Amino acid sequence: MSFNSLGLSDALLKAINKKGYDTPSPIQEKAIPPILEGKDVLASAQTGTGKTAGFTLPLLQILSEGTTKRNRPVRALILTPTRELAAQIFENVKEYSEFLDIRSAVIFGGVNQRPQVAQLRRGVDVLVATPGRLLDLCNQNVLSLSSVEIFVLDEADRMLDMGFVRDIERIIKLIPKKRQNLMFSATFSKDIKKLANGILTYPVSVEATPENTTVEVIQQKVFRVAKGKKTGLVIKLISEGNWQQVLVFTRTKHGANNLTKKLISSGITAAAIHGNKSQGARTKALAGFKDGSIRVMVATDIAARGLDIPLLPHVINFEIPNISEDYVHRIGRTGRAGASGEAISLVSADETSFLADIQKLIGMKIPVEIIEGFEPDPNASTEPIKQGQGRSRNQRPKAGGNKTGNRNAKKSNTSNSGRRSRDRR
Predict the structure, then answer these.
(1) Is 124 left (phi over 0), alpha (psi -120 to 50) or beta?
(2) Residue 390 predicted with pLDDT over 60
(3) What Å distances lie between residue 330 and 118, 173, 204, 273, 302, CA to CA?
(4) Residue 400 CB coordination number (10 Å)
(5) Domain(s) of CATH 3.40.50.300: residues in the chain
(6) Which pTM value belongs to this model?
(7) Which percentage of the chain shows pLDDT scores above 90?
(8) Spatial distance between the Cα atoms of 145 and 170, rounded to a whole number of angstroms
(9) Residue 393 pLDDT > 60
(10) Regarding the domain with residue range 3-207, which homologous superfamily does it belong to in the CATH classification?
(11) Which architecture does CATH list for 218-369?
């Protein structure tokens, strides 16, 4: 199948061709037709499957076929959990609408709102936003959502995990009841289905891959290692393998900072990206990682959500996640666009039960190796890490509730400052 057969306009096909694409991905092939028909869609798709174009292309076509109002109120709202993902989606919207009379903008916290406000006042057809800044500007009467025709909720599972459900409910009340709704999520959990029932109307469900499965082209491996020897093993793997682009996941911000310092002291260029980093620092680190001046990016789960890093060859789980679905998302950063990739997990004794849960979820045993000089500690306890170092196994926070541990979330409240703190992740 080609993009020509999906019913897209010549202007969109021209933009797609300019980006060098000719064949739609599975999620694009499945999602675009029902969206063009005006139906609500609930889609399960991992980052890296082309899902952004899956909703952006038909959204732009629908808007371009409608009547453009003189003051250009917001007609399409794309809500996403993190600044990096918002910026990435905005770039896609701009690229695909190059040959259309469509104006777009992106708003998120952590930066001065004045340029964002100025752009909104000039008129915007498509708005990409994070929840906190969006509600801030609505509360200031700078922004109205009363003309929204299409509402997109992207990364819905992470929205819930970050405690945004109450903000989503407030935003829903600000947009018209009669609208088209599109929801994209990496998984279809019970909480996601419950959220979908409150937003979508007779939705068409589409899936790019079977639920909660990993990409087949990713080579997965586990190294059993003593907790205190993990840093040395990471340095050995990167140095001896001469790896030039590696994404490393830690459970906490503090852990990300410590590992980054030790990598740099060993002569490996590295940068940390997490919620305590300013937007400027995060943007600079990501740019360095993409252009090769930084070999290793050390990230927490939330900070890495939505990062657009094409053809990433190596992912290392310095600490494996205690939420099994997060493992699937982490290793999905590599092996994208048909390329091969390698995902390595360093597993200490207290992570044994987490590994068992992950293997149960993905339906396979991951090959295990032990490297001489980095053996596991035979006397270490296999008790899972304590609450405060990460959520206990199989324990997810209640949607919208307070959380501790590896999410390092601020207490959820209804104040603007509370929302802004979440947007700074």
Answers:
(1) beta
(2) no
(3) 37, 33, 27, 15, 10
(4) 16
(5) 3-207, 218-369
(6) 0.64
(7) 54
(8) 12
(9) no
(10) P-loop containing nucleotide triphosphate hydrolases (3.40.50.300)
(11) 3-Layer(aba) Sandwich (3.40)
